[in-house]
Write a structure and sequence with these properties.
The complex is a heterodimer of chains A (178) and B (326).
Chain A: E1 2-4, H1 8-12, H2 19-24, H3 28-31, E2 32-33, E3 36-37, H4 39-53, H5 69-82, E4 87-91, H6 99-114, E5 118-122, H7 126-132, E6 135-140, E7 143-149, H8 155-162, H9 167-174
Parallel strand pairs in A: 1-4, 4-5
Antiparallel strand pairs in A: 2-3, 6-7
Chain B: H1 3-10, H2 12-31, H3 38-63, H4 71-85, H5 91-117, H6 122-140, H7 150-157, E1 159-160, E2 164-165, H8 166-184, H9 186-196, H10 198-203, H11 208-234, H12 241-257, H13 269-288, H14 296-311
Antiparallel strand pairs in B: 1-2
Helix pairs in contact in B: 2-13, 3-8, 3-11, 3-12, 3-13, 4-5, 4-6, 4-11, 4-12, 5-6, 5-11, 7-11, 8-9, 9-11, 12-13, 13-14
Classes of the chains: A alpha/beta (178), B mainly alpha (326).
Chain lengths: 178, 326
C-alpha cells in the first residue's frame, strides 16, 4: 500500500538528501539484504524508476531539493512504485506542477490501474476527476452522497452533489443512478 | 554525471574538519620542543581518541535531529565500572570489557526508551538520565581509585610497529566495525531520513522508532568505549561531574566542528572525529606557544564560533529565505 501525500515538501521528501536515497526509502526491504543495503541492486532499481517516470535530475546523487516541483513529485511517486504497491492512495498529486508532468502522471496512473493496482485518487480538480477516474465518490457532511461512474462523471453532476443541492432532482434528470 | 561532485558537497564538513585538523596539527608538531616524533603523536592521539569516541557517540543521536546530553556521564559511569571489573588476566578482563560495553548499551537503551516511548524531549530526558548515570558512578567510586588489566591498557595506549599510535588503530577499528556497517544499513539510512524530516520519513514508511532506538543504543555503546579507553589511559576510575559535563559539551563542539548539522540529517561520525581531534589540538597549540592555559576555553570558544559561522555560510547562497524552512 502506498500513500502519496499532499505536501511533498514536508511529507513526501527528505529535501537535502539525494534523489537515490529518497527513492529507496519506501522500498528499503527490497534493496537490502539482511538489513544491509545492496548498492548494486539499489542503483539498478533507482535507474529503472528514473527511466520509467522520466525524472529529470542532473544526477541521482543530486539533492532532491534541487529538482523542479514536477520532478520532485515524480520522485515521491517513483519512491512508492519501487515498493510495488497494490493499493495506491493519492492526495492531490498534481498540485503545483506543470501541465506536461501532469499529463505524464495521468498516463502513468492509467497504466498502473490497467496493470491491476487499485488507485484511490483524491483531488479538488473536477477536470482530473472527469478525465482520470472510473468511479467518483462525492462526499458531503461526512458521508458518501453520490457514486458516479463512467460517463455519469460530469462537471454538473459533481458540483451539484458536492454542494448537496437538489441531488435527488438532478439524479432524476441525469438518468439512472448506480 | 558528476556524482563525485555531489558527494564532495555532501562531505564538505568532513573534509573541512580534516584539513583544519591537519593544518593545526602540523603547526603544533612543528613548534613542539620534541618535534614531530612518535611520542608526541602518541600522546596527542590518546587524548584525542577519548574525545573522538564521545563525539562519535554524540553524532549518532545528532543525526536524528536530537541531542544526547548524557554521553559524558555514560563515559564516567563506564570508566568507574571498568576500574572495578576489567581486572585480572585473560578471560576475566575480557568478561569485564563485555560487561562495560553491555552497560553502555543499557544506558543507550534507557535513553531511547525515555525519548521514544516516553515521548520526552531529548534534551531534558538525557540531562535527567545523565544525572542518574552519574549517581551510579558515584556509588561505584565514591573516591577515585581502582585498577585495570595492565597489558591490555598498555597495548591500546601504546604504539603499533613503534610509530603508529595503537589508539588510532583502535579508533579505526571502531569506525570499521560500527560506523561503516551503520551507514550502509537500512537503519542508518533511516536515521538520516528521520533527522532530515521526521514527517516525510514516517509518511515514506521508514521505521522511525527503530532508527531512533538504534541511534541511542549505538551512542551508549560508543560512549562506553570512551569510558573503557579512559580507564586504560588513567589506570583508574573517577566519578567526576566536571569531567562528565566537559566531555558532553566538548562532544557537541566536536560534532559542530566536524560538520554534523545540529538540525539533523547530515554529517558523518568521521567528520565529528576530526572535529574532536581539532578541538583537542587547539588546547595543545596554546601549550606550545607558551600561552597561559587559562586562555584555552576562550580560544576553543572562538574557534567554535568561527566553525558555526562557516557552517551558516550557506545562508548567503540561498535566494529565497523561505527555502531555509521547508
Amino acid at each position: 500500500m502506498a500513500l502519496i501525500p499532499e505536501d511533498r515538501r514536508t511529507e513526501g521528501l527528505m529535501l537535502p538528501m539525494s534523489v537515490r536515497e529518497n527513492l529507496s526509502f519506501a522500498a528499503l526491504p527490497r534493496v537490502s539484504r539482511g538489513g544491509v543495503i545492496d548498492g548494486q541492486r539499489e542503483n539498478a532499481l533507482v535507474a529503472q524508476m528514473v527511466d520509467l517516470l522520466e525524472i529529470q535530475a542532473a544526477s541521482t546523487a543530486a539533492p532532491a531539493g534541487s529538482l523542479s516541483g514536477g520532478n520532485q513529485q515524480k520522485v515521491v511517486i517513483a519512491k512508492w512504485l519501487m515498493a510495488e504497491p497494490r493499493i495506491i492512495l493519492l492526495n492531490d498529486p498534481t498540485r503545483g506542477i506543470d501541465v506536461g508532468t501532469k499529463q505524464e502522471i495521468y498516463v502513468l496512473l492509467r497504466r498502473l490501474a490497467e496493470a491491476g493496482a487499485a488507485i484511490v485518487f483524491y483531488t479538488t480538480d473536477y477536470d482530473e476527476l472527469i478525465g482520470c477516474c472510473d468511479r467518483a465518490l462525492v462526499l458531503y457532511d461526512g458521508a458518501i452522497k453520490r457514486v458516479l461512474s463512467g460517463p455519469e462523471i460530469t462537471e454538473r453532476a459533481l458540483i451539484s452533489s458536492a454542494l448537496n443541492i437538489g441531488a435527488e432532482a438532478e439524479a432524476e434528470g441525469a438518468g439512472p443512478q448506480r | 554525471m558528476s556524482d563525485w561532485r555531489y558527494g564532495l558537497t555532501q562531505n564538505r564538513g568532513t573534509l573541512l574538519a580534516l584539513i583544519f585538523f591537519l593544518v593545526m596539527f602540523a603547526i603544533y608538531s612543528s613548534n613542539h620542543p620534541a618535534g614531530f616524533s612518535a611520542n608526541v603523536v602518541q600522546t596527542a592521539a590518546n587524548k584525542g581518541v577519548l574525545l573522538a569516541l564521545v563525539a562519535m557517540a554524540q553524532t549518532f543521536v545528532v543525526i536524528t535531529a536530537a541531542i544526547d546530553l548524557s554521553v559524558g556521564m555514560v563515559l564516567v559511569l563506564t570508566n568507574c565500572l571498568a576500574s572495578w571489573i576489567v581486572v585480572g588476566a585473560g578471560a576475566s578482563a575480557a568478561l569485564g570489557v563485555a560487561g562495560v560495553l553491555l552497560t553502555g548499551l543499557a544506558c543507550g537503551a534507557i535513553n531511547g526508551l525515555i525519548v521514544i516511548y516516553g515521548r520526552l524531549q531529548p534534551i531534558v530526558a538525557t540531562i535527567a538520565s545523565g544525572s542518574v548515570f552519574f549517581g551510579l558512578a558515584l556509588l561505584l567510586r565514591p573516591v577515585p581509585g581502582g585498577d585495570v588489566y595492565g597489558p591490555l591498557a598498555d597495548t591500546l595506549t601504546g604504539r603499533v610497529f613503534r610509530v603508529v599510535p595503537a589508539s588510532l588503530v583502535a579508533l579505526g577499528a571502531v569506525i570499521l566495525v560500527i560506523w561503516i556497517p551503520y551507514i550502509r544499513s537500512k537503519i542508518g539510512r533511516a536515521a538520516y531520513a528521520v533527522g532530515s524530516s521526521e514527517t516525510a520519513a514516517y509518511m515514506s514508511g521508514v521505521p522511525v522508532g527503530p532508527a531512533k532506538s538504534w541511534a541511542y543504543l549505538l551512542s551508549g555503546l560508543t560512549a562506553s568505549l570512551g569510558g573503557l579507553f579512559l580507564t586504560f589511559v588513567t589506570y583508574s576510575g573517577e566519578a567526576s561531574a566536571a569531567n562528565g559535563n566537559t566531555y558532553t559539551l566538548f562532544s557537541i563542539a566536536a560534532v559542530v566542528l566536524g560538520g554534523v548539522s545540529l538540525f539533523g540529517g547530515s554529517g558523518s561520525a568521521i567528520g565529528a572525529i576530526f572535529g574532536a581531534l581539532m578541538f583537542r589540538t587547539i588546547g595543545d597549540l596554546l601549550f606550545v606557544f607558551n600561552l597561559d592555559p587559562l586562555w584555552q576555553p576562550l580560544f576553543q570558544g572562538l574557534v567554535l564560533l568561527a566553525a558555526v559561522c562557516v557552517g551558516s555560510a550557506r545562508l548567503f547562497q540561498v535566494r529565497n529565505r523561505l527555502d531555509l524552512f521547508p
